[in-house]
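Homework-ish question, so no full write-ups if that breaks the rules, but can someone show me the predicted structure for this set?
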Amino acid sequence: MLSAMKHVTLLLLSGALFGQPTPLTVSAPPNQLPPSVATRLSPADRELFGKLMQVGLETAWAAVTSEGYPQNFVNELTPLHTGRRMVGRARTMRYLPNRKDLRDKLYSQGPQLNYRSAEEAQPGEVLVFDTGGESRSTVSGAITTTRFLMRGGAGIVVDGGMRDVPDLRAMPMSIYLRSGHASSVSPILMSADYQVPVRIGSVTVVPGDILIGEDHGILVIPASIVNKVLSTALSHDEQEEFQRHLLLQGEPLPGVYPTLNETNRKKFEEFKKRKK
Amino acid sequence: MLSAMKHVTLLLLSGALFGQPTPLTVSAPPNQLPPSVATRLSPADRELFGKLMQVGLETAWAAVTSEGYPQNFVNELTPLHTGRRMVGRARTMRYLPNRKDLRDKLYSQGPQLNYRSAEEAQPGEVLVFDTGGESRSTVSGAITTTRFLMRGGAGIVVDGGMRDVPDLRAMPMSIYLRSGHASSVSPILMSADYQVPVRIGSVTVVPGDILIGEDHGILVIPASIVNKVLSTALSHDEQEEFQRHLLLQGEPLPGVYPTLNETNRKKFEEFKKRKK
Amino acid sequence: MLSAMKHVTLLLLSGALFGQPTPLTVSAPPNQLPPSVATRLSPADRELFGKLMQVGLETAWAAVTSEGYPQNFVNELTPLHTGRRMVGRARTMRYLPNRKDLRDKLYSQGPQLNYRSAEEAQPGEVLVFDTGGESRSTVSGAITTTRFLMRGGAGIVVDGGMRDVPDLRAMPMSIYLRSGHASSVSPILMSADYQVPVRIGSVTVVPGDILIGEDHGILVIPASIVNKVLSTALSHDEQEEFQRHLLLQGEPLPGVYPTLNETNRKKFEEFKKRKK
Amino acid sequence: MLSAMKHVTLLLLSGALFGQPTPLTVSAPPNQLPPSVATRLSPADRELFGKLMQVGLETAWAAVTSEGYPQNFVNELTPLHTGRRMVGRARTMRYLPNRKDLRDKLYSQGPQLNYRSAEEAQPGEVLVFDTGGESRSTVSGAITTTRFLMRGGAGIVVDGGMRDVPDLRAMPMSIYLRSGHASSVSPILMSADYQVPVRIGSVTVVPGDILIGEDHGILVIPASIVNKVLSTALSHDEQEEFQRHLLLQGEPLPGVYPTLNETNRKKFEEFKKRKK
Amino acid sequence: MLSAMKHVTLLLLSGALFGQPTPLTVSAPPNQLPPSVATRLSPADRELFGKLMQVGLETAWAAVTSEGYPQNFVNELTPLHTGRRMVGRARTMRYLPNRKDLRDKLYSQGPQLNYRSAEEAQPGEVLVFDTGGESRSTVSGAITTTRFLMRGGAGIVVDGGMRDVPDLRAMPMSIYLRSGHASSVSPILMSADYQVPVRIGSVTVVPGDILIGEDHGILVIPASIVNKVLSTALSHDEQEEFQRHLLLQGEPLPGVYPTLNETNRKKFEEFKKRKK
Amino acid sequence: MLSAMKHVTLLLLSGALFGQPTPLTVSAPPNQLPPSVATRLSPADRELFGKLMQVGLETAWAAVTSEGYPQNFVNELTPLHTGRRMVGRARTMRYLPNRKDLRDKLYSQGPQLNYRSAEEAQPGEVLVFDTGGESRSTVSGAITTTRFLMRGGAGIVVDGGMRDVPDLRAMPMSIYLRSGHASSVSPILMSADYQVPVRIGSVTVVPGDILIGEDHGILVIPASIVNKVLSTALSHDEQEEFQRHLLLQGEPLPGVYPTLNETNRKKFEEFKKRKK
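A: Not a homework solution, just the prediction itself:
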């Protein structure tokens, strides 16, 4: 996806500079961090999250893959919202089919993990629930999520179900799930593990991973490579912005995409200069 | 879900009384009965449907379950609309795979049941079609549903398909289905039984059941317990409204949710008084 | 579905002529060809596409079926947009699981078929990708589709995945797919065949077929029968418009639908005259 | 499938008459009615069941389809045994998701229908349970089936689950199901309707239907056409036996199958005479 | 299922004592512990496993459920063998989608868990692999399983795949899986956790759990209740043996099953005495 | 899998040489080419097929993968037989959903491709039918397959259905399919393409590919690399045979598998010499 900045640029370029009367819309509107998150982030995170909101999801995917992580995109869940990008850090939980002896043992050690995670969440975090795809139960609902919002929560990812779906849909938060249900957690499920690696779809999510979610899925970026990924991807985005600009002027694909020919590569260098 | 009344209250409380500058939206807008239904209901039903529009779906589910009905939530279908609550009484039909001998016998006794049910429907009813999940055929379309609308029809629930989906989507009605198709009923299906218990997803629906549907599924309430369920659930909704209010003020979960501590329980008593 | 013209008529009739104070909305808004397509079509196609935008999908399905094509409706894919009708001519491609020897051979003969098809597309065409339902890969994304838009492309149908979903959603184009992904085509898939008969869902699509897509699926019309289908279906639409009009006046189904009785048939003849 | 008689004939023909040293096995061994059924049938049924054991399943399917029943083959279930043909008359039951009010009402009227059906079964009957595909529960087990066996029961068809699978597998009976489970009927299911039309896979089964089951599915024959179907199919089997015989002699397909040429048709007439 | 002892008894009773000429087979042959397991068990375990081989699976399920464990039966996997009962103690592992950073960390701490578990297994153990249902990869194959056999391994349960299926099928061991594949563990999966609670199908399995597997699924018994379960179930088996005996004599279900009437209850008391 | 030769060797070694009283069976019986195939192969193919019957499927998979073909194993189909290895060369066909205009055109050019392929098949070939997973129709049955057997046909692979399953099961041939049905090809499907690359499960099969099938799937080997694959795999099989032999003597995994330590590597060199 083109970044927010590019989005604006493109419209200006194609609409104004090149005099095309009715410019085609070919990219989504810019992404915005919800104020409930933005106002609570540290300055360092605000800068990081700004870039994560701007980077192309597909170029970031390519960078993550070329770093040795080809299995890091979750596309098995359904987002509650479209046209909204999720950016955040993973706080993970594993849920298991309910079982009396283990449940008694686990719950004697503290509250259910949906309560604990909402309460302990740091600004910009995403709660990640692995329930093995269970669709007859839920892991959380609107009230606990209200607390999570007040803590600066950025999103929820559940390989399973949630309740209170219309309320969740009204919240300034990104939520991905398998299905909704009116049920509570029990009697089908119980929370078991906190902040361990979990499976979401066919991807392993580790606590602290950086997540970028769009309509069609969630990219999971190991924290240790996020800066490298951003740098590579943002640089590639710049070229894609230029390629799209050429196409909107009516140029054919050969020579433009996927690879610029020599003429266009020179134009691209000028394009980059002009933008600065 | 919070009720409509609570929704308004909450905004007032958090926005005005407690001086929070930009209150978070944490609940869906109030539900409204479509005029085509509301104007045709009897006074008694208008009162009942008013409460059904207001009650929390999840608290109602809990009350239904505690009455001995743990298998009464359908989450296997897809709603045509989001952000719209369905409330109504079930009028049921069973469809079967088409078969010449049986079809000849059944159809000699009267018209297809989609016609009959649309014509006989009472205001506030929901047509419930059990087709065993068949996705290559449909049970009804926009024209028959127009008649159903004129009769005060409130919704349609099909464990199968419907045609004319864009028209259906434009109607003031709630519709849940497995899939759409352009096909007529035959040659795949035929209508077989009228006003008998049917299976929708993994739930048995009986004629006269009260249905509450939201984005994530449909709660099936036996008519004999609907008053008890409403009373229990509405009372619990009041507490959840207060709990959400406390959380929006910044209080942590412990002491607030799922259980109020003593201090907050006293505050809740005052909260209830103030509301009257 | 009722046609655009009928839509307007109906509102006038039921709202103004018959004095019903708050007319029910029972049909979707009129369909419109995107300017990026309309402005590029030949005069002959502009007329044809106009009718295709207007005809009822279900009546067209019935006409196609009665011509001997009962397996011509695709309802296994998900549209990126609702409330938008797709009309276009099929340009087909077959993708296969990636395999080094065959890929080397195929790609030595020319570019990937997503590039080639976008570049060669004629105004009003729909790119049709058969990938066997593969959900872990994609066949194309926003940049190539930008070129396709500039060529007057009307839609994309993929029995598989696409990337850049938010950008695609912003475009004036109709897109049907199984799933989204951030991945490129390889390493899972490769393009193999161009302009051959392909399987989409449970339907065979042949290059040059006329496609009409709505929220609930895509009707595949062999080019050789499109005029006959349009003529039959538009004539039947006129009757359905009248039937809906009677129902909105409060008439019961018997005598109106599915078959007009003698009285109503006479009224229909007058209705048709009045409209001219 | 070739009939039992044909099977023997073929081996004789190809092995002895035509001197082929190691004849290929190209048909399954002859089918046999279990003694527990055979000894309890009426003379008329013994003759009928004898033909049903002998007729080709595919030729019978073709005859059923040409009589106007194209949707009468169940291939969604799994047989507990392979190499065993089931023949019998349907005794049907419909099970529904459990629900306290309805269950109390139904069970006050008599025992669960698995008990009732086993007790009332006539020799040569097949119990047919429609549970909507439920895999977390069962409808019956080995003890009730023991009683059914003692009554001359021929088979069980469940669109759902059974318990005691190893015991069932040891019994001289044909059983088709979705899955096994150790559970009892409740708390998931309850029996609801007896001897009504039911849905098994995508087929409607009516009480009294004749069922023929093999490894790959169950043909459902309306009782009223069974004699016509047998007559048509057995006659066609005779030709297929001859065709296979020609192929085993080394003749090529053209002229033999699917249609005999004139020379082979004459040979077929002689073949039929020789067999009498 | 009837136990081994009961099986023999029944045949004697019905065949010899009661003079029925051709007794029906209504129960599976007795279960036997493979010598590779039996010879390696401790005396205490040999006695325990003997009872576990003998107890009815369905009566044990009922006892487990009545102890408060209604979600303890796995019926989502496929056994490699039919007619073979698995009995053993769970040794559990969790596998996750492969991911370079985590894999490097985990594998630096020791060998893959399939190697470790085979090497550390105690006689009578069952290796339990949770892979989240992954079908494109495997967790182990014939060579590692050979070592596990030499250690007295009793079975393998994989919510995923194994390789070398024909060799595994030849081994004196019970194996349950989702699918086979020729692939190694990587690049799709990696082993992550050892001897932790895992999810298999919709059941939580804890290290040390007692497993009983038959053709149709696996009962998971918490170690702490195994003696109580055995005692309850074996006692109930005795009654079922008597009930089946009565039915084989031709008695009808009422008065026999599911509940004995007074006359039959007295006969049962004598039956129990005679057996001692 | 261990090869046939190794199988025998192992039993001798573990049973006789090393004096273990009751040797464990840890590998499947040797594979055998059916006489109907073996007697018809050319000398060169007889040698090749002999090696293909002997090589380990998993070691061959590893060799194919390391040659650059990681997506060449089909595990989505069900074999009609277990314990039988299929070896053969692919003859491919593509079937499409039936459609009158295209069917008329295709069938005017020659017979249905199941007839043509059976008639043109060369000894040792496997017919490969791509039908897109269609389960409501079949591509061929017992009579056409009889002709194919007479031509030396080795197997059939259908991503869809076949009829006459009991007869097919009786034949000396390996068959893989999705499901059985009693139906003919039409009216659901039609044959479309002959000897083109096709998709089976998630693998591309090219005419002339070498296929090895076992209980758990089919390895697809491009003809150009088959000799290299065999050479690599057979050499690795020899080591696996030795590793299994060490384990059967009671050695632990470390030092034996997956990697031999220095001591065992020397023993392996002696083992290889002894075998010659």
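Now go work out the reasoning yourself. Hint: The first helix of chain F runs from residue 4 to 17.
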